[in-house]
Amino acid sequence: MDFRDRRLIVTGGTGALGTAVVGALLEAGARCLVPCTSEGKAQAFPHRSHPHLSLVTTGSLADEDAVARLYDGAPDLWASIHLAGGYAGAKVADTDKSALMRQLETNLVTCFLCCRAAVRVMTKAGTGGRIVNVAARPALEWRSGARMAAYAASKAAVAALTAALAEEVAKEGVLVNAVVPSVIDTPANRQSMPKADHGKWPKAEEIAQTILFLASPDNRVTRGALVPVYGRS
């Protein structure tokens, strides 16, 4: 896949999946703009010295003004990949309103605001583009969201947003899709689930290849898709 001369924004780009996605994009010739919540994360990012990478400290992506400033810096935006999010597990009986709202803000609101900003830039330019979101397996398989209902609900909302927005902007040449991981094979997940069969989990680098296709000019027809990337898990 060829991303030469194409600008992409990758939120959550300094995380485990984001590092794999940004690395693959840079290798394919993309110019990547990656927001960071702190200068420390920017300094620790392994791709920080790449000439086609721009790291910007933005603060919270649940803040409308912060998101607007980020996307104002990319008037030539081709694709926006939204990996920012977070997980919190608890039974419904143990989840108060503030915990629920944190999950909605972390997963749905950040995705919604970035989708909105990306669509505005792309439609203004009139050149089309690509948006890729990240849902989660409980977003499609609701019963698997037991003991993590707030997280499952927030990711189900991301899935619904993806399908609705895809229909809304298709005529503008903007194709919107989402990948749906199960448990990604990361050091943090291995530590939290040491007895699991880690060999069955999808690798970040494998999921990155699916994301790259959906974000690429090679994807000419796929929109509104919620693509399971479960590996063998």
What does this protein structure show overall?
This protein is of the alpha/beta class and 233 residues long. The protein has a single domain (7-229), classed as Rossmann fold, CATH 3.40.50.720. 42% of the residues lie in helices and 17% in strands. The chain is built from eight helices and seven strands; from the N terminus they run βαβαβαβαβααβααβ. The chain has helices at 16-27, 39-44, 64-72, 97-125, 137-140, 149-169, 187-192, 204-215; strands spanning 7-11, 31-36, 53-57, 77-82, 129-134, 174-181, 226-229. A seven-stranded parallel sheet has the order 3-2-1-4-5-6-7, sandwiched between helices. Helix 1 packs across helix 8 (204-215) and helix 4 (97-125) packs parallel to helix 6. The chain is globular.
